[in-house]
Amino acid sequence: MTGWVYWLDLAGVVVFALSGVILACRSRMDPFGMLVLAAVTGIGGGTLRDLLLGVRPVFWVSDPTYLWVVIVTVTLSIVGFHYIHRLSRIVLPVLDAFGLALFTIIGAHKALALDHAGIVAVLMGVLTGVAGGMLRDVLARRVPMVLRQEIYATASIAGATTYVVFDTLPIPPYLAVAMAIGVILTLRLSAIYWHLSLPIFAWITSSPGASIKHEATSKPRVKARVRLIPPGRRRR
């Protein structure tokens, strides 16, 4: 693994682990719960990626530095708990956005380095970026952000695609990385700031009007239809 990829990967572990610590604090977990949530968030996505790509052993087994990074991040967070506790609620989504950007690029890069097709690289990038956060949210009994209507996985897909496309061009590798990270952060942070989201399909049921008479023993008919709800009309 080249130097810039390795340090970028470690930075992503720190960012995602810290987001797991913050969520653990808000969920009133003990230090062990903080460690579990931080580890799952920091190395969960990469573990699934390596298993699917057939990489043996997975990255943190061959290089325990990743585990030490998670442990040190949790330890420093416990020492500075009062500062972590006072962080505003915008910090977790912002940290998550940076972790999403870093891990998406790492996953796509690793798939390309193993000579997989571009579409596989995009998929591995998205998996690396979103799987850890999904596991974190599930353990904290929250609906994962990737399953909501927020622009999350869409940003990861756009960033991974950008990296795969620019990687085929005769340009320095760091430029492809910068462009891809810029795309992901622009989409994700814009969605956070302006509350942007994708439209959703809702199964809406409606009863017939009051003017329609029904027999006392009969049940009123219910009409159901699928309706596309634009982002501006849903409740926040």
TrEMBL record:
TM spans (from-to): 6-25, 32-53, 65-84, 91-112, 118-139, 151-169, 175-196
UniProt domain Glycine transporter: residue ranges: 6-79, 94-167
Membrane topology: Multi-pass membrane protein
Intracellular or extracellular location(s): Cell membrane
Entry keyword annotation includes Secreted: no
Keyword check for DNA repair: no
Principal location class: membrane
Alphabetical UniProt keywords: Cell membrane, Membrane, Transmembrane, Transmembrane helix
Homology family: Belongs to the UPF0126 family.
Full protein name: Trimeric intracellular cation channel family protein
Organism: Modicisalibacter zincidurans
Lineage: Bacteria, Pseudomonadati, Pseudomonadota, Gammaproteobacteria, Oceanospirillales
